[in-house]
Amino acid sequence: MAVQATAATRSAGTTNLAEILERVLDKGIVIAGDIKISLGEVELLSLQIRLVICSVDKAREMGMDWWVNNPAFSSKAAEKQVGEPWKRIEKRLDKIEKIISSTG
Predict the structure, then answer these.
(1) Whole-number Å distance between alpha carbons of 49 and 80
(2) b/e burial code for range 39-68 (CB count within 10 A of at least 16 → b)
């Protein structure tokens, strides 16, 4: 009888992985840690690790949208990154052509 009661309480109190993941992505979770390596009194290395796990919507709500302007993650950002230098080159060429045409 004791085995059956234990199994019943476990099944009633368990949540599946999908529910846990949904909660974490909805609310967000921050994992932070600092690692310091010292030799005597001299600090040789200091690492600060911050990990934020949340949904894209939650990240935007918190003001984190770095992937929007990163060319590795956004085709629009990649086009902008490639297009900007060409626009500057075209402007410089226009200036040079105007100078040449006015002196010639």
Answers:
(1) 31
(2) eeeeeeeeeeeeeeebeeebbeeeeeeeee
The domain locations on the chain are 1-64, 66-104
Strands (DSSP E) contained in 1-104 are: 29-39, 42-53
Residue-wise pLDDT tens for the chain (104 aa)? 455 555 545 555 677 898 888 888 888 888 899 999 999 889 999 999 999 888 888 888 888 887 777 777 777 766 666 667 777 888 888 999 988 888 86
For 32, 46, 56, the CA distances from 37, given in Å and listed in that order, are: 17, 6, 34
Cβ neighbours of 28 (radius 10 Å): 16
Q: Is the dihedral of CA 17, 18, 24, 25 positive or negative?
A: positive
pTM listed for this prediction: 0.44
Cβ contact 22:58 at 8 Å: no
